[in-house]
Amino acid sequence: MKCALVTGGSRGIGRAICIRLANEGYYVLINYKSNQTAAENTLELINYNGELLQFDVADKEQIKSVLDNWISINPDKYIEVLVNNAGIREDALMSWMNDEQWDNIIKTNLDSFFYVTRIVLKQMLVRKYGRIVNVVSLSGLKGLAGQTNYAAAKAGVIGATKSLAQEVARFGITVNAVAPGFIKTDMVEGLDEKEMSKLIPAKRFGLPEEVAHAVSFFAAKEASYVTAQVLSINGGLYS
Ligand code: NAP
């Protein structure tokens, strides 16, 4: 059975990715941290062609116990598509940023890539096939005042994407990233959309489905010669 794991699949961009991959025939493992109701809504939206997998991507012990357990009780399935999407931001100017704000963001947005991917990669290597797509950010390419923590984490994932892609290309595994600009989700709540849209050539924020479309391109079997790439989805804001 074709299986895809989407971290942070309960809401926003992750939910749109779950729906897109389910429509493409994947059995989707919907990871989330705490919002059970939202995760159940995503499961309903994909007609129950998947299951919920709760773990905190910032907690390496939890990742290991939940994923190892799922793999051991599902010998007939394997995760051939991994989307590392879960992420948070906690903005502060660096001189005011506390240890917790730095550590939380690095753990959730960067360490999670390592601890989740290392486990899923093993089966991909055995099967000699896999698609890994990391959701990074415009901030990791361009930087943004108030986001030294978030930009460092996302830039870290970009470097890891390019390095891992070179390690595993000969095993039929591709590793790519999508870098959204401003996308309408809970994460951008509180931003002045009208004012900020003036700076975007497309004159609007993007939609989660527009990011999901790019993820689905990288996840496709046919995208077999596309690896180590970062695709911006930002309405022309930065290139
Ligand atoms: P969102 O609407 O706030 O949703 C975040 C998702 O991540 C939720 O499903 C949440 O689960 C999950 N999550 C958060 N922390 C987690 C943890 N520790 N363990 C497991 N799951 C966790 O965010 P979004 O806008 O869709 O963002 C998705 C990704 O796109 C992130 O990596 C973000 O950095 C990136 N991005 C977003 C934008 C944007 O403008 N929206 C721009 C650039 C990049 P719960 O529901 O359980 O909380």
Characteristic terms for this protein:
239 residues, alpha/beta, Rossmann fold, seven-stranded parallel β-sheet, 7 strands, binds NADP nicotinamide-adenine-dinucleotide phosphate
Structure description:
The protein has 239 residues and is α/β, with parallel strands linked by helices. It has a single domain, classed as NAD(P)-binding Rossmann-like Domain (Rossmann fold), CATH 3.40.50. The protein is 45% helix and 17% strand. The chain is built from 8 helices and 7 strands, in the order βαβαβαβαβααβααβ. The protein has helices at 12-23, 36-45, 60-73, 99-127, 138-142, 148-168, 193-197, 208-219, and strands spanning 2-6, 27-32, 50-54, 78-84, 130-135, 173-180, 230-233. The chain has a 7-stranded parallel beta sheet with strand order 3-2-1-4-5-6-7, with helices on both faces. Helix 4 (99-127) packs parallel to helix 6 (148-168). The mean pLDDT is 98. The structure holds NADP nicotinamide-adenine-dinucleotide phosphate (NAP). Residues 7-8, 10-14, 31-35, 38, 56-58, 85-88, 108, 135, 137, 180, 182-183, 185-188 line the site of NADP nicotinamide-adenine-dinucleotide phosphate.
